[in-house]
Amino acid sequence: MLALGVYAGVITLVTLLKPFISIGLLWGYKAPRRREVSFQPFGEYLDGVSTLALVFGYGGNFILFVPLGGLLFTLSDQRRFKPSVLMVGFIGFLASCSIEVTQFVFRLGITDFDDVLFNTLGTLVGAALAKVFGSKLQGLWVALSIAIGVVLAALTVFGPNVSGVLSGDW
Q: What positions belong to coiled-coil segments (predicted)?
């Protein structure tokens, strides 16, 4: 359960607190503070944004939710209630929708259909991997979730210094 709490914090940090923090080389204090909605599937791709932006945007949303799917599936597998992969995917979908609505209401970023799509796919893949590998990977999901939390916390605290050292401005 600690890992799930840490990972919920990671998701909150990366999705809702972007405008207020700098995370190492990922981004500075420049995340959008606007209320905008994009319902167009694959809108960034169709708009011709750079390949790096597509990988970071789509891939980042996907990868961010893979550990969540794995954690939800393996942790719930130890209880009486054993959800299906689709049920865990639906929980990821609801979590993603909640994030997007919060971003819209509080102007914390762009509310985007693609974010929900790739977050949900990531949750489904994480749950499917957890189902295939069973309890053998539970330790991995827990360790991965806590490690990601520690790394992001360190990059948030030391972020400006890391960027300065690498650019020679220290």
A: none
